[in-house]
Amino acid sequence: MAATLLQKSWPGREEVVAKLVDIFRLSKASLPLCIHGPSGSGKSAVLRSVLSHLQLHTAYLDCIALPTPRSLFESALNQLANHIPCAANGYSCWAACDSTAGFVQGVHAIVGQLGRVVLVFDKAERLAIRGGSLLQSLLTLPTLCQATDGRVQVIFVAEALWTEPSYADNTDFRRLTTIRFSGYNKAQLATIIKRDFGAVGAP
Asked: Exposed/middle/buried for 63, CB within 10 Å: 0-12, 13-18, 19+?
């Protein structure tokens, strides 16, 4: 029933909402997952809504706002550990991550406390542009954390799938589960505007 209400709140995205709910309800979900589609198609908003509905411990990482591996790693661990750098803790992070190994160790420790965690990398095209080993490490993060049973789930959100041969020919890349968001049509946009206007106008 709750899932049906969630679908109704996203007109034009009922099928993709149902698919995401099914994926995340699996105790051994087939991830990493890549959600792709044009800007403004609701990718991030729908994903946040589904993850919130399922009450999964999630870190949301903007790959443009967080331009270095260290900034991504430390933000992810802060969010998952519910740690906020402030004056009381000397504006320190939950854990300093100078390397992928430190990040893996931190995720592994948090999984031991929380169980299942989700890491969402938004604007993930930037990861491919950077090159290097970062994307490869993220693709294999569940294995690196010894959590191939669905306790660590990695999600990439992008406008398009990576097409460079170096990634397209990668074994881990080919194992990505992909979900495509199409653009909204005029009727769907009208329904969304009506919904949002009603929410703003409600007392």
From this structure: buried
- Round to whole Å and give the CA distance between 57 and 51: 8
The candidate with the shortest Cα–Cα distance to 108, out of 89, 121, 95, is: 95
Q: Taking a C-beta distance cutoff of 8 angstroms, is the pair 10, 46 a contact?
A: yes
Please say whether the beta carbons of 77 and 95 come within 8 A. yes
Please report, to the nearest 10 degrees, the dihedral formed by the alpha carbons of residues 56, 57, 63, 64 taken in order: 100
Amino acid, single-letter form, for residue 40: G
Per-residue model confidence as pLDDT tens digits over 87-131: 999 889 998 888 899 999 999 999 999 888 999 999 998 887 776
CB-side exposure of 53: number of CA atoms within 13 Å? Answer: 21
Q: Residue 195: pLDDT above 80?
A: no
State the pLDDT confidence band at 10, using cuts at 50, 70 and 90: confident
88 contacts 123 by C-beta, under 8 angstroms: no
Angle at 92 between CA 91 and CA 97, to 5 degrees: 145
pLDDT (tens digit per residue) in 72-88:
999 999 999 999 999 99
Where residue 2 falls among pLDDT bands split at 50, 70, 90?
A: low
> How many angstroms separate the CA atoms of 176 and 195, rounded?
34
